Amino acid sequence: NAGVMQNPRHLVRRRGQEARLRCSPMKGHSHVYWYRQLPEEGLKFMVYLQKENIIDESGMPKERFSAEFPKEGPSILRIQQVVRGDSAAYFCASSLSGRNQPQHFGDGTRLSIL
Amino acid sequence: QQQVKQSPQSLIVQKGGISIINCAYENTAFDYFPWYQQFPGKGPALLIAIRPDVSEKKEGRFTISFNKSAKQFSLHIMDSQPGDSATYFCAGERGAGNQFYFGTGTSLTVIP
Fold first, then answer.
1. Which residues of B are less than 8 Å from A48 in CB distance?
2. Chain B: nearest CA to A5, how far in angstroms?
3. pLDDT over 60 at A1, yes or no
4. Between β-strands A88-95 and A31-37, what pairing exists: parallel, antiparallel or unpaired?
5. What pLDDT, in 10s, does the model give residues B48-57?
6. Which end of chain B is more exposed for a tag (fewer CB within 10 A), N or C?
7. Residue B44: its chain A contacts at CB < 8 A?
8. Higher-scoring residue by pLDDT: B2, B21
9. pLDDT tens digit string along A59-97?
10. Which residues, other chains included, contact A63 with Cβ-Cβ below 8 Å and sequence gap of 6+?
11. Residue A25 forms contact with B (CB below 8 Å)
12. Contact between chains at B43 and A45 (C-beta distance less than 8 A)
């Protein structure tokens, strides 16, 4: 499968636990984006990364959320001490380059907080 | 604030009809406008995209019309089919950044 791969597809956490969401971009893509989607809403940008660098994190909450895209391996979106309001679908997208390029999306991780 | 406004929120069209979804933006720095189709439980899939130096772009049954002076663009789906039933999102990308600003989506139902 040459598409964007996200795992897990579904993740259940209790309040206060940590959630780790993984994203492997399309082959040859070095630009990764994370978006959050709440029910009946559009996607909201969170963070844009290139290999080993965070380029734009203007959409990321200042606390508890972090993202990385290491030289080797998938991009990780990490949410510490999860709260009920973190329940959402989290989508990762990748692109070949950063400007005016199509972003290709994975099928998302549905995060549920008990 | 919502940088891209999308309407209608939901749309019901008869099979064979034309589906029209409209979007408007305020930020004149936007220079790339993609449309995405999303089925339940799936990620958004790119349908078609346009840049503001073009007034219309057509791919198969899908056409984007772009009005730069009005800061509006629309998606037309010709000969709509039940398989087109999905949620459609428009988006804009700022020239100085890489994030997409998405509209709130239109749920399209095509009745056989």
1. 97-99
2. 11
3. no
4. antiparallel
5. 999 989 999 9
6. N
7. 43, 91, 105
8. B21
9. 999 999 999 999 999 999 999 999 999 999 999 999 988
10. none
11. no
12. no
